[in-house]
Amino acid sequence: MHIYAVLAIAPVLPFAVVWLAVYIYKKEKKLATKRAMDVTTALLIGVVAVLFNEVFGSTFGIYLLLLVFLLGFGLLGNLQQRAKGKVDLRRTVRAVWRLGFMGLSAAYVLLMAIGITKNLW
């Protein structure tokens, strides 16, 4: 549990470690970036949920993230259904997961700044 806490508090570290490991093994920057995003997203889910709970004094953080991910999956699945007539589940999940990385990264920075500011005052 302590390892997860350390990795979740500084998500740049696991991103860098995974990126380097994949790049050294496969020699592909694009693949290394994708894999690092995938691993870091899992860590960001936990830390953003906790930060949300701490900043807003609630217990709704993880449920909000689950709701956003499910809504994103539904919207992208609907978009695929309308465009191609079928839903590629693997592609949709991957797209939602990677978009989640972008959103969670922004939320992490914002909530961390708010949390630090709130605790200073």
From TrEMBL:
UniProt keyword annotations, A-Z: Membrane, Transmembrane, Transmembrane helix
InterPro entries recorded: DUF3397 (IPR024515)
Keyword presence, Lyase: no
Keyword Membrane in annotation: yes
Positions of transmembrane segments: 6-25, 37-56, 62-79, 99-117
Highest taxon, organism lineage: Bacteria
Protein known as: DUF3397 domain-containing protein
